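Sample entry (202 residues):
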Amino acid sequence: MLKRKHSGFSLIELIVGLAILAMLMALGLPQYATFISNARLRATAEGINNGLNLARAEAVKRNARVELLFTDEEPIEGLVNTVAPVVNGPNWMVRAWVATANAYDFVEGKFGTEGSGKTDTPGVTVTTTTPGVFDGTVSFTGFGALASGQPISFQVTYPAGGACDTVGTPGPMRCLNVNVSPGGQIRICDPKITAAKDTRAC
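Predicted structure, serialized as tokens:
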């Protein structure tokens, strides 16, 4: 009688395969964690960029003053006239000033944890190139320019993920800046890049 040949893995082959898989996961897990942290950082920067562009577009459309306000309160319509600006607030709200009503009109609000991951460590650090210009709000005129007439820069960091990767000081995080010029132009840039012709450079 012919013996039927059975195909499959032996116990030793399975153990060796699982050991190799465990080694590969141990090597790749730190890189994956860094990737996720950088993705959260970029999501935060893009959220700020989108909010600023929305505020500027609304200002031009309404031909009125519209502002993006950072706060640690809920960015909801019910608080549009009472919400307090906070320089390092994790949430933001876009609101338009209506002179005839002597009140603000709610445009949009976002929680800082949306898309950037919930963390107890502040994910966004806000700095300004001109001390005293930024008080927690960025106001645009009806022409789309900054009401202050001074440039504002937001530095987006993710302390929970590690140090920023800067010129001369390597780190796991590719921190980003969001710059607003006096004329109202808004762009995300990478402080790590120093080449003059590179459009990603600050």
